[in-house]
Design a protein that fits this description.
Layout: H1 2-28, H2 33-48, H3 58-89, H4 98-126, H5 141-171, H6 178-193, H7 195-217, H8 263-266, H9 268-314, H10 319-340, H11 358-412, H12 414-427
Helix pairs in contact: 1-9, 2-9, 3-4, 5-6, 5-7, 9-10, 10-11
Keywords: Coiled coil
Coiled coil: 59-125
Length: 428
C-alpha cells in the first residue's frame, strides 16, 4: 500500500511538472489559465449541445423567423431615418443630444447589418428566391424536405468532427502499459462501432438529395430552389478539405453571422494549452486524494495500534490470547516499516502520529534485520542438506548397481562355491 501510494505520488508530480511547463509557455505567449478555462468551457458547450433532428416544422420555423426579422429590419430603418432627420433639420427632441443620436445611429446600423445577414443566411437555408412571398411558402413540402436534409448534414458533420477528436486523442496516447493498451483497444473498437450509424445518416441524406432533385425537375419546388450536393461515401472518414460535406454552409441556427473558427478549434497552441490545463487540474485533484489516502492510512493504523496495546494490557493472564495479540503487534510493526518510509514524502499527517514509540520502532527494525539474516542462513543450510541427500542417493544408486553385479555373479557360480567350501572342510 505504501509503495503504491509512493508510485502514484511520483507519477502525479511528473505529470504536474510537465503540465506546469506547458502552461508557463502558454502564459508567455499570452494565453493565461483563465483564458484557457474559458475556451474549454466554450468547447464543452459546443460539443455537448444536442444535435439537430429532422422535423416537419423546421421550414415553417425558418420562414416565420425570416418574416419576424424583416419586420425588425423595417423598424430599425425607420428609427435610423428619424434620427438622421433630426441631424439634417437641427431640431432635436427633448433630452436628446447630438452625441446620443450618433451613439444610437451606430447601434442601429450594427443591428441592421446583423439582421440583413441573418435574413440572407436563413433564405440560403431554404434555397428560395428573395423575391418570393414567404407567407405562401408555409407548409411547403420541398422546404420541409430540404430543411430535414440540412439537419441531417449538420448531424453528419458533428458526428464526423467528434469522431476526429476521439481518434486524435487515441493517436497521441503514449502510455504503453498493458492496462492502458487494453483500454485504448476498447475505446478504438467503440469508436469504430459508430461508423455504421454515420454511414446510415449519409445514405439517408443522399436519398433526400435525390428526392429534392426530383421535385425540382417536376417543378414542385419554389422558383430558384437548389438541391444540396450528395455526400460521396468513399473517403468519408478522412475529412478532406475539398469533401462535399463542407460545401454547403449556413446550417447553424445561431446568430446567423459569418461564423468564426473558435480558438479551441483553430489554434493548435490553445488546444495544447487546454490539454495541459486539464492535466494540471487532474493532478491537483489526485494530489488531494493521495494526501487524504495517507491521512486515512495513518488514522487506521493508529486506531489498530491503540486497540492492540489496550488488549495486551487487559489480557495479561491468558497466555494463549496474549501470544496472539503480541503476534498482531509484531505484524503491525512490520506493516509500519513497510508503509512509513514510502509515504514519508507525501505531505499531510505528521509521521509521529502512527502510534509506535521510537524504541519499539528501533527494536522492530533490528528484529526484521536479524530475521532476514537467520532466514538466509537457514536457506543455505537447507540447500547444503539437499546437496548431501542428493550425493547419498547417488552413492546408494551406485551401491545398488554393484550389488546387482555381485548377485549375478553368485547366482552363476553358486554350485562351484559350495563344492569348494566342502573340500576345505574335509581337509581340516
Amino acid at each position: 500500500m505504501g509503495t503504491w501510494l509512493q508510485r502514484k505520488w511520483n507519477a502525479m508530480n511528473a505529470k504536474k511538472f510537465e503540465a506546469e511547463i506547458i502552461l508557463n509557455n502558454m502564459e508567455q505567449n499570452g494565453y493565461t489559465k483563465d483564458y484557457l478555462a474559458i475556451q474549454w468551457n466554450e468547447q464543452v458547450i459546443y460539443q455537448t449541445k444536442p444535435l439537430k433532428k429532422q422535423s416537419k416544422a423546421w421550414a415553417n420555423k425558418e420562414i416565420e423567423e425570416i418574416l419576424l426579422l424583416s419586420q425588425n429590419l423595417d423598424t430599425y430603418k425607420k428609427e435610423c431615418n428619424r434620427l438622421e432627420s433630426m441631424i439634417e433639420t437641427g431640431i432635436y427632441e427633448e433630452n436628446i443630444t447630438l452625441y446620443i443620436i450618433q451613439e444610437n445611429l451606430e447601434e442601429l446600423q450594427e443591428k441592421i447589418s446583423k439582421t440583413k445577414k441573418a435574413i440572407s443566411n436563413k433564405r440560403a437555408k431554404l434555397s428560395v428566391d428573395g423575391r418570393l412571398n414567404l407567407t405562401k411558402l408555409l407548409n411547403n413540402e420541398f422546404l420541409k424536405l430540404r430543411m430535414n436534409a440540412l439537419a441531417l448534414k449538420q448531424r453528419i458533420r458533428d458526428r464526423l468532427r467528434m469522431r476526429k477528436f476521439e481518434l486524435e486523442n487515441m493517436e497521441r496516447a503514449y502510455r504503453s502499459s498493458i492496462n492502458e493498451a487494453k483500454l485504448q483497444k476498447h475505446v478504438h473498437q467503440q469508436i469504430k462501432r459508430k461508423e455504421p450509424g454515420i454511414q446510415s445518416l449519409v445514405r439517408n441524406y443522399n436519398k433526400a438529395c435525390v428526392q429534392l432533385e426530383s421535385m425540382i425537375a417536376q417543378k414542385k419546388a419554389p422558383r430558384g430552389a437548389i438541391a444540396p450536393l450528395p455526400i460521396i461515401m468513399e473517403g468519408l472518414f478522412k475529412l478532406d478539405v475539398d469533401d462535399n460535406i463542407w460545401q454547403d454552409i449556413g446550417f447553424d441556427d445561431d446568430e446567423n453571422e459569418t461564423i468564426e473558427i473558435p480558438d479551441w478549434l483553430g489554434k493548435e497552441d490553445v488546444r495544447k494549452g487546454i490539454k495541459a490545463l486539464l492535466e494540471y487540474n487532474r493532478c491537483i485533484e489526485e494530489e488531494r486524494r493521495l494526501i487524504e489516502e495517507k491521512k486515512s492510512m495513518i488514522q487506521w493504523f493508529r486506531e489498530e495500534w491503540v486497540v492492540i496495546i489496550k488488549a495486551i494490557g487487559q489480557m495479561s493472564e491468558d497466555i494463549n490470547v496474549l501470544y496472539q495479540l503480541k503476534q498482531r503487534k509484531q505484524f503491525l510493526l512490520r506493516l509500519y516499516l513497510s508503509w512509513e518510509l514510502p509515504v514519508r514524502g507525501i505531505p499531510g499527517e505528521n509521521n509521529t502520529l502512527w502510534g509506535p514509540t521510537k524504541e519499539e520502532i528501533i527494536k522492530a527494525k533490528k528484529y526484521e534485520t536479524t530475521q532476514s539474516v537467520l532466514y538466509k542462513e537457514y536457506t543455505n543450510e537447507v540447500a547444503d542438506i539437499e546437496m548431501e541427500l542428493e550425493d547419498d542417493n547417488e552413492y546408494e544408486d551406485e551401491h545398488d548397481n554393484n550389488d546387482d553385479v555381485i548377485t549375478d555373479f553368485e547366482d552363476g557360480d553358486e554350485a562351484e562355491l559350495l563344492d569348494q567350501i566342502e573340500e576345505d572342510l574335509s581337509t581340516l
